[in-house]
Design brief:
Strands 13, 14, 15, 20, 23, 24, 31, 34 and 35 form a nine-stranded mixed beta sheet that branches. The protein has a six-stranded mixed beta sheet with strand order 3-2-1-4-11-12. Helix 6 crosses helix 7, helix 10 crosses helix 15 and helix 16 packs across helix 17. It has 17 helices and 35 strands. It is of the alpha+beta class. The longest helix is centred in the N-terminal third of the chain and has 31 residues. The protein is globular and about 80 Å long.
Length: about 725
């Protein structure tokens, strides 16, 4: 490929491999891979970037000065949290509430468990709290749920609490009081007093008041999230700062952005860095939304298979769903997170025989990057799904990660025979095929259940399949579901990194409100509620503007989008609605908000379910600020006709399929041209992924380098 001007660097730093996705000014892109380097992630990043740029015959030193944007997503922060290797944090709460953090919510006892384990109490357990009881202090104060001060703050107790925590060598202090989102003054007073006390003592540790970060209801969620900010997120700033520094040393002029949980990107200097805790899978959903907007597709079922998990999300009428009380690392949190369903079923999932029922079980644990028994360097002894791929001939053992990892089919064959085939009385090939069939039927059930469970049908959606393992199983897990179309981007393996590059530079702030308006409200009641919502929007807009100013974006360059959360009075669940107006001044303005809510409610549930006779509750205010940043261009290639070029054909390979060995045509994915049609049985190979086109199926490569998979008609 001719050398081109690199424009955007998108990074997906996993626990083992670091992917870089580099896009040029023509919308062309290259994907690089390198081993991750946890002790200094910038090393793996630069090695991966060198690998990518080698396809363009250029170097990091030549290309980086041309870059206009860089976006990072990674797992370092989440790994720090999961492995409990964070800061020593102290916690100040209401006196009498010193144990609520370690008690947690009941759901935290079984988060991440299978359905059967959730049913049995003896399998439940609580993880040790992030802040142990001995580092928790209570001070007297009480605010009721309406924001009224019932007991004033006992300031003399504050000094004692702060001093005792400092004497225990805490590295950060978190402050979280009941109902502080309604009355933030007490938390802020403790914060300011702590700073004064530290100044006098000549000690300094960071202070985190929950109202400065997450002024929302649900104290367990809010406290957990603020603790994570102090425990894992803030220490990760150093990692991100090092990456930013290293890329600038190579000539880059941009400030590093990080993928955030709400689907936008934020600066690594952002106030709320815990929002970047999970980023890789979200990048894929954001990439799907961006690609869908370009192609004019409004309803998308996202499906992402990696080594460990199967991630699913729905984009309906062009909108992502946001979950405001998600869970992560067995903790309930107060973060706006793109709504996704994840199951522990991926290409690296372990395969075992259930001793009671003599049936095959998959996962939920996996070999991840170590692949399986077929990779002796991984040290794995239990059979994985990837071992079955190798034995069946579905993947080329000499082309895994472009040949970087050599796989040995004979090792996989022996392990499958001993662990799966012999106990079941099957041939090795039938056992391996059964594993793949079981995996795909499970994934198909998960995907169908997610869509039907939200009240939709697969026929209303286009399925996007991506991730390193996605194209391998696309046909299997979409079979018979009746999707409108099935799309597999040629860059499926790097799709999450692509999504990072496609994300807006966006800050989002939320605030809990309790504004109740009766069904027969007069103008005065509506105006008062509207004014309180307006005040919340103004407060949040100032916070958004402040974050952008840190990155030298003045307020007038920021596009502010206003949202509110509303429900009928007495309901348990609210809806997030984009406001049709920018200011609420009159009763007529309030009516416009209600109208927008009613329209959304009718779409999400049903017109007949509307209940205006109950009155309305506004439960939250949200402000999103967005600025224009460079984004990748979707490839545009001239159509070259149905017949693929001869150089793309690599010959045939024996593949075990439905009880017999058959020959499959092997094609080099990168050599195929726009307009080419390939009939199954075919396997399309690329260094980072493998796309299986079963017998009877056909795939068509369009001008955007996206494969469309066509299922045979029954």
């Amino acid at each position: 490929m001719a050398r081109a001007n690199a424009q955007i660097l998108a990074i997906d730093a996993g626990g083992t491999m670091t992917d870089t996705f580099i896009i040029n000014d023509k919308g062309e892109f290259v994907v690089g891979k390198a081993q991750s380097t946890p002790e200094d992630e910038s090393i793996g990043l630069l090695n991966s970037a060198r690998d990518a740029l080698s396809y363009w015959g250029t170097t990091v030193e030549e290309a980086f000065p041309q870059l206009v944007a860089g976006v990072y997503s990674g797992t370092a922060m989440l790994n720090r949290l999961v492995s409990r290797k964070g800061r020593r944090v102290g916690l100040i709460v209401n006196k009498g509430m010193e144990d609520f953090h370690r008690m947690g919510r009941a759901i935290q006892a079984y988060l991440g468990y299978s359905y059967s384990d959730r049913l049995h109490l003896n399998t439940h357990r609580y993880d040790p709290p992030l802040v142990p009881r001995e580092l928790t202090r209570g001070v007297t104060e009480r605010v009721d749920l309406f924001g009224n001060v019932v007991i004033p703050l006992y300031e003399h107790e504050v000094e004692q609490a702060v001093v005792e925590l400092l004497e225990q060598n805490v590295e950060a202090i978190v402050i979280s009081f009941l109902h502080s989102y309604k009355y933030p003054a007490h938390e802020r007073r403790v914060r300011d007093m702590a700073k004064e006390i530290m100044k006098k003592r000549g000690q300094e540790v960071p202070i985190f008041a929950s109202v400065d970060y997450y002024p929302v209801r649900k104290e367990s969620h809010r406290t957990n999230t603020t603790i994570i900010e102090a425990y894992a997120a803030d220490p990760s700033r150093k990692t991100l700062s090092t990456i930013d520094k290293r890329v600038k040393e190579k000539g880059a002029k941009f400030d590093l952005r990080v993928m955030a949980s709400h689907g936008g990107t934020i600066s690594y200097q952002a106030n709320e860095l815990a929002r970047t805790l999970v980023s890789g899978p979200i990048g894929g959903v954001v990439g799907a939304k961006y690609l869908g907007e370009y192609l004019g597709i409004r309803n998308i079922a996202c499906s992402d298979i990696g080594g460990t998990s199967f991630d699913m999300a729905l984009i309906t009428q062009g909108d992502l769903s946001i979950n405001t009380s998600p869970d992560m690392a067995r903790l309930v949190l107060s973060l706006p997170l793109v709504a996704m369903d994840t199951v522990g079923a991926g290409a690296g999932s372990f395969v075992r025989i259930d001793p009671n029922f003599k049936s095959i079980t998959l996962g939920p644990d996996s070999a991840g990057y170590r692949v399986g028994v077929c990779n002796p360097a991984g040290g794995i002894e239990t059979v994985t799904v990837s071992d079955c791929h190798v034995v069946l001939g579905l993947i080329n053992p000499d082309n895994f990660l472009g040949g970087e990892v050599k796989l040995y089919p004979e090792l996989a064959y022996k392990a499958i025979k001993e662990q799966i085939a012999d106990p079941l009385g099957l041939t090795v090939e039938d056992a391996a095929y059964g594993v793949i069939d079981l995996l795909e039927s499970q994934l198909r059930n998960y995907l169908e259940s997610m869509i039907l469970g939200k009240g939709y049908s697969p026929s209303q959606y286009v399925c996007f399949s991506y991730g390193g393992g996605g194209p391998l199983h696309t046909a299997g897990y979409t079979k018979g579901l009746g999707f409108e179309d099935i799309l597999v981007p040629a860059w499926a393996a790097g799709f999450s990194a692509f999504g990072c590059g496609a994300a807006d530079f966006e800050y989002r702030y939320d605030k809990t409100l309790d504004l109740n308006v009766s069904p027969n409200a007069g103008d005065e009641e509506k105006v008062e509620a509207g004014q309180n919502l307006q005040l919340a929007w103004e407060e949040l807009s100032d916070k958004v503007a402040e974050e952008f100013e840190k990155n030298n974006f003045p307020r007038d360059k920021v596009e502010f989008r206003l949202y509110f959360r509303m429900q009928y009075q007495g309901q348990l669940n609210d809806l997030e609605i984009e406001s049709p107006i920018t200011q609420v001044r009159t009763a007529a303005d309030w009516d416009k908000l209600v109208e927008a809510f009613e329209e959304t409610y009718s779409r999400v549930y049903a017109k007949a379910a509307r209940s205006p006779e109950l009155g309305y509750s506004v439960t939250g205010a949200i402000v999103r600020g967005i600025t224009e940043v460079p984004k990748p261009k979707i490839p545009e290639e001239p159509l070259a006709g149905d017949i693929p070029p001869e150089k793309a054909y690599l010959g045939t390979r024996n593949v075990y399929w439905k009880g017999q060995w058959v020959k499959a045509d092997i094609w080099a994915m990168e050599s195929l041209k726009a307009g080419n049609r390939i009939k199954g049985f075919a396997i399309l190979e690329s260094p980072a992924t493998t796309f299986v086109v079963p017998p009877g199926y056909e795939t068509y490569l369009d001008q955007h380098r996206i494969f469309h998979l066509k299922e045979p008609r029954e």
